[in-house]
Write a structure and sequence with these properties.
about 250 residues; five-stranded antiparallel sheet; five-stranded parallel sheet; alpha/beta; Rossmann fold
């Protein structure tokens, strides 16, 4: 028996998925969830092989939820995204259902997902999340998991980000959080008017800078409201001056 989790904040949408799943006797819905928080708990509890995931939900989005799962199950996305985002799904070869979807389209998606389940290959949705997340508007928040708890960090609360191989350390006033994304990713997503790549290893929230001090040869230090000092390279200083208009 294949265990599935259904995560969608619309009761009618969940009802349709359950109805369309009836011919698939090998699939059992282990739990229904109203939002991403419930979904994360259910996935941790049941360890499903299949996930039906809405994207636009309150609290956290489907993408944000999926980012927090270490080994995600085969996932069928349900979405009302526009054509721009659709290209991201097609490019990264995962299946999705554009609401409202037909029974025939649903069954095709399930058959495709079952092939993935039976292949015992752990799906990599990171390219999809990063591509589809590249919306015209900068990210307004970052969702992280720390000590088993989920925290939503407003972008305006971030002091700076620091590169750590393929991860990024997110520095805020009360701590440091690790996120499995590169600094280049956050540079694209957070918006160049609020965050500036002042050094190959540092991305700074310009609103947190109190002053810029000279340091060694052509370098500088950005002093932040928290008292932290962030290195600023020669090229980073040029970008910083341009952004600040100095």
């Amino acid at each position: 028996m294949i265990k599935a989790i259904l995560v969608d904040d619309e009761p009618l949408a969940r009802l349709i998925v359950k109805e369309y799943l009836q011919p698939f006797s090998e699939i059992e819905i282990a739990e229904e969830c109203n939002d991403g928080f419930e979904g994360l708990k259910a996935i941790s509890k049941h360890q499903p092989q299949l996930l039906f995931l809405d994207i636009q939900m309150p609290k956290i989005t489907g993408f944000e939820m999926l980012e927090l799962i270490e080994k995600p199950p085969a996932t069928i996305f349900t979405t009302a995204f526009d054509e721009y985002a659709m290209k991201a799904f097609e490019t990264n070869a995962v299946d999705y259902l554009l609401k409202p979807f037909s029974k025939d389209r649903f069954e095709k998606a399930v058959h495709k997902a079952l092939q993935q389940v039976n292949s015992v290959v752990i799906p990599d949705y990171k390219p999809l999340i990063e591509t589809a997340g590249a919306a015209p508007q900068p990210f307004q928040r970052v969702v992280v998991k720390s000590g088993g708890k989920i925290r939503i960090i407003p972008a305006s609360d971030i002091l700076y980000l620091e590169a750590a191989d393929d991860y990024a350390k997110i520095h805020v006033a009360d701590g440091i959080f690790l996120k499995n994304n590169t600094l280049s990713y956050f540079e694209r997503m957070l918006g160049e008017q609020q965050f500036v790549r002042v050094h190959r290893s540092y991305l700074v929230n310009v609103s947190m800078i109190t002053r810029i001090d000279p340091y060694e040869k052509d370098g500088h230090l950005a002093v932040l409201t928290s008292g932290a000092r962030v290195p600023v390279s020669k090229s980073g200083y040029t970008k910083l001056k341009s952004t600040l208009g100095i």
